[in-house]
Design brief:
The protein has helices at residues 9-20, 25-33, 37-62, 70-77, 80-104, 106-114, 132-152, 161-186, 198-202, 213-218, 220-226, 243-272, 275-279, 289-304, 309-338, 341-348, 369-389, 393-424, 438-465, 469-498. It is an all-alpha fold.
């Protein structure tokens, strides 16, 4: 049998980097805070990213023979109900992502066609009622039904566009770094947005954040979200050469590269983007700010080399189209994959009887078709509720982004909170250990959990303090509703087992081994 090739240190760093780093986080962070976003990325890296990555690595190493991933970790450490609720909330964070992308995908479409985002002016048959966010909501519903239809037929080959988009996004990063440095040199070291040292790192450029400590603290959720995806790192421990030495080194190096990468790119965005001139208008949203900044990047390159105003406009529109096409390919590829992948993982890892009706059935082609159509209905209803309930395009994208940021970071609390209990377990393979004592596991487990808890609490409460109850309601509603749904599904399953309507697993012989029920369902 051929021995599996192990990952070297550099390969491991690259894998962690590609799993975590997201270019879109940079223009959005600059729009929300300017240079003042940088310290929060460093704080989130220290209090969340590095310690959480080590926890995931220990979990992944100890349970490397389990197929359930994060479900198995929590099931064996705490119990099946806790694990199911945590994993279900992780899955539903992708549902919120689908709601966001289905509505937001029309921004790159507009940029590809028109060279700019004019979705706010779109209307159906000139109707004021079916315009702006409402029209985008209807278009998102149609788009998502079409995606679900093709995916339910087993046509997942379109996801190969993800690799094309991923390579192109990497090219964009290199282009921005090189282009910005060239512009800084061409301008004799002058930045379009002046940098005043500590004052710039302390004071947000966004007027809404100035003098508002709760709003500034709520920004940490954006920084935490930017480090999302590290749960995928858990399975890499045993695929790494000399893991005891290389894995901690790989995580720390990758973390530093990512933190420095985010900080550097935010600085470079300021080198070609004057905040009040470019981002001061009301038509800038979290949905289109990346395209506005990248259009400006192309125009500023032209200006640095003495191009005429007409040439600068042409460059801006042309580059907006290229960047939008890249993002469109990446989003489409991700959407085709994520419509079925997290759902399939959740249903495959649990018992068929746990799910109501025929939801737990997997078709012959491996697709959970019934569950996919239920998912489709939920996404469509949420899109329509948010789009017809929003007042402006800016509010619409703010609500969607807040929902995704909160929804995707809350499930991490379940993993970090389970870590001290995992550390107490006996008869577990501890071949890879970072936290040497129970005390260190307790401290960091609770530090990460509290960081996530407080960041999400500030992010949820802050809009309400400013009178924006709608954003607060939707940010909170996702995790609460889905958490209650998960609890209800598992409680129903427990009652059915207790009443004898369905049989518990044969391997479950006593209450202590009940923790293994769902983990052994594979």
């Amino acid at each position: 049998m051929k021995e599996e090739k192990k990952l070297g240190l550099m390969s491991l760093i690259l894998m962690i980097f590609t799993s975590v780093y997201g270019f879109n986080n940079i223009p959005r962070s600059y729009y929300l805070m300017g240079y003042a976003a940088i310290p929060w990325f460093v704080i989130a890296g220290i209090l969340f990213f590095i310690p959480f990555a080590f926890m995931v690595a220990e979990f992944g190493s100890a349970f490397r023979k389990e197929t359930g991933g994060m479900y198995s970790w929590m099931c064996k450490s705490v119990g099946p109900k806790y694990a199911f609720i945590g994993t279900f909330m992780w899955y539903t964070s992708y549902v919120l992502w689908m709601v966001n992308v289905s509505s937001g995908i029309w921004v790159p479409v507009s940029n590809v066609i028109f060279g700019e985002d004019n979705t706010a002016t779109w209307s159906l048959f000139g109707s004021h009622f079916l315009s702006g966010s409402r029209l985008l909501g209807l278009m998102a519903v149609i788009f998502f039904i079409v995606i679900t239809y093709f995916d339910s037929k087993g046509i997942d080959k379109i996801s190969t566009v993800t690799s094309v988009g991923g390579t192109a996004v990497l090219t964009i990063n290199i282009l921005v770094v090189v282009g910005s440095i060239v512009m800084i040199i061409a301008r004799g070291g002058q930045l379009q947005q002046p940098f005043a040292g500590l004052e710039s790192l302390k004071t947000p450029l966004n007027v809404a954040y100035q003098g508002n400590p709760i709003m500034i603290l709520s920004f940490i959720v954006y920084a935490l979200f930017a480090y999302g995806g590290i749960e995928a790192v858990g399975g890499l421990v045993d695929k790494t050469e000399n893991p005891k030495k290389n894995f901690p080194k790989g995580i720390v190096t990758a973390a530093m590269v990512i933190v420095v990468g985010y900080a550097l790119l935010i600085m470079l965005v300021g080198s070609f983007t004057n905040y009040s001139e470019i981002l001061g208008s009301d038509n800038i949203t979290l949905g289109n700010v990346s395209y506005v900044i990248m259009s400006n990047f192309a125009a500023e390159i032209g200006a640095a080399f003495g191009a005429t105003e007409a040439t600068q406009v042409a460059l801006a529109h042309g580059f907006a189209r290229v960047y939008a096409l890249i993002m469109l390919l990446a989003l489409m590829g991700a959407m085709f994959t994520l419509v079925y992948s997290p759902l399939k993982q959740l249903i495959d890892g649990t018992e068929k009887e746990l799910w109501p009706g025929k939801m737990g059935e997997i078709a012959e082609d491996g697709m959970p078709k019934n569950a996919m159509w239920i998912q489709c209905a939920i996404v469509c209803v949420m899109v329509l509720l948010v789009s017809f309930g929003g007042d402006t395009m800016q509010q619409f994208f703010l609500i969607l982004t807040a929902m995704v940021n909160v929804g995707m970071t809350v499930p991490y609390m379940f993993i970090s909170f389970a870590f001290p209990k995992f550390k107490k377990m006996k008869d577990v393979d501890r071949s890879f250990v970072v936290y040497k004592s129970q005390t260190s596991a307790n401290i960091w487990g609770y530090v990460v959990t509290l960081t996530l808890l407080f960041a999400n609490a500030f992010a949820i409460i802050q809009p309400a303090l400013d009178g924006d109850y709608k954003t607060t309601f939707w940010s909170l509603s996702g995790p609460v509703i889905f958490g209650l749904v998960a609890w209800a599904i598992y409680t129903r399953y427990e009652k059915r087992v207790a009443s004898g309507k369905i049989a518990a697993k044969d391997s479950v012989e006593n209450a202590d081994s009940a923790k293994d029920v769902a983990a052994q369902a594979e």
